[in-house]
Amino acid sequence: MAELMCPGCKADMPAGTQYCQSCFLTPVTKPSVAENACGDPDCPTGGQPPAAGCRPCGLSGASAPTLSFAWGTVAVPADQPLVVGRENSPIASQLGDYSNISRRHAEVRSDGRALTVVDLDSMNGTFVNDQRLAPNQETPVRAGDKIRFAARLEATVTGEAS
Amino acid sequence: MTHIDVVAVTHRGRKRDHNEDTVSVAGFQSGAVEGQPVRFAVDPIRPVTCLVADGLGGQAEGGRASRLAATAMGDFFFHDREAVVKAVRAANEVVYAEMALNPAWSGMGSTVVVLVLAGDRAICVNVGDSRCFLLRDSHMVQLSQDDSVTPAPGEATVATVVTQTLGGRARMTGVEPHAIEVGVRPGDQFLLCSDGLTDELPPERIEAELAGAADPRTAVERLLRATLDAGARDNVSIVLAAVPCAEEGRDQ
């Protein structure tokens, strides 16, 4: 028996309830969280808010996730992984002071909604929230996670909807 | 400054899929499927028009007829009884005119009960079996006059047959609205409702709920809850207009 909820106040309704006592609405079957992120059974965008934000429910959209470094923010486009390193990297020019970064240290990939980070077998290691990553293994990171490359270079994941 | 407190709600009930009732308060109209009570604070400096229109259920396009009727007179400022009666007749013609546009809409119809609070006078005009009650000093009297078959003595007045409606027939037929004008006293409460309320709850129950509630909003919520609990076989619409008490007027 599926659980019921009020479509107005989203409160749980015991089975057999005819209407919500506060909203006077007919209960609907509660959607499972996995199938519908915003919890609205009638979500026109299927629970995944568009980038500009969801107009009906106000859920903020998934902006492209970015990495916030000490000198500024670096966007990670979905089709173009960001290589962190002292060579062939868009941010190589900023890494002059960080000599313990490898030439190809790590790679940050994006699918447009969330970021993953891969350590490219670097000498001094890549850390997520101070946990060293195994080399060449993709690790998902979420907004607020701190990625540290070698000893001093730190970046914070920002701009992700979840 | 004293305002007339109007709380209005319309709800499809528990048996019907659609809401064919329409409520209108001071020009704001709702036919929400499962509405919530909305509270209006209306300045009585201009005449305040409230109405409930109950589209003929189970017939073609009842909702369309009730919306039309409500739109035809919901946003006017009526100053006397004749003007309201005229507007109800005009609304009847509007419904028949719309009917002529599409053969499928033939026979659509709606009841209507209009309450106009114009200064110290209240004008109530109705066609059909939607009702208007006046609650004064915790006693409720019916102002509207039902267009239904008179029940045999001793029988309940759950009449489902209305003898007169706006529209409702295939051919243009005139209506003879019932009109009544009463004086308004501070603290008066006027209840407009569709038969979805009066068929489910006896008048004594309605009177008790109105008299026992602290404010109009609570009263309407209680009435709606009681109606839904009683089964709510028809669409239910409730408009409760509360004239401010004299004491409140001095306080503000």
TrEMBL record, chain A:
PANTHER family given in the database record: NUCLEAR INHIBITOR OF PROTEIN PHOSPHATASE-1
Domain FHA: 82-133
Domain of life: Bacteria
SMART domains: FHA
Keyword tags: Phosphoprotein
Keyword hit for Cell membrane: no
Record bears the keyword Phosphoprotein: yes
Gene3D superfamilies assigned to the protein according to its UniProt record, in alphabetical order: 2.60.200.20
Entry protein name: FHA domain-containing protein
TrEMBL record, chain B:
Gene Ontology molecular functions: protein serine/threonine phosphatase activity
Residues in PPM-type phosphatase domain copies: 37-243
Cited SUPFAM superfamilies: PP2C-like (SSF81606)
Highest taxon, organism lineage: Bacteria
Name of the molecule in the record: Serine/threonine protein phosphatase PrpC
Organism: Paractinoplanes atraurantiacus
